[in-house]
Amino acid sequence: MYAIKNYMEEAVANMLDRVIENIDVCKCQKCKLDIMALALNRLPARYFVTKEGELFEKLSELEDQFYVDIVVAITAAAFVVKNNPKHN
């Protein structure tokens, strides 16, 4: 069965912990998901349906700018969450 997926979600999830480990921000599950959501809203979606589409998106990871864009989006989102936490 086919399913539509946004490859950017996987890429951000894979980089999240490494990017925020040295940022003074809450690292609870709620805050991490808030950071991911904000970061994903700043990044272009990379949807795919087929295995070939997934491979194409993984090739784009080889571009340095791909990583830079994700790190910048996660970092900016982390500072927003740090200044506006949404948990008790």
Automatic annotation (TrEMBL):
UniProt cross-references to InterPro entries, sorted A to Z: ComFB
Superkingdom of origin organism: Bacteria
Protein name from the UniProt record: Competence protein ComFB
Organism: Caldicellulosiruptor changbaiensis
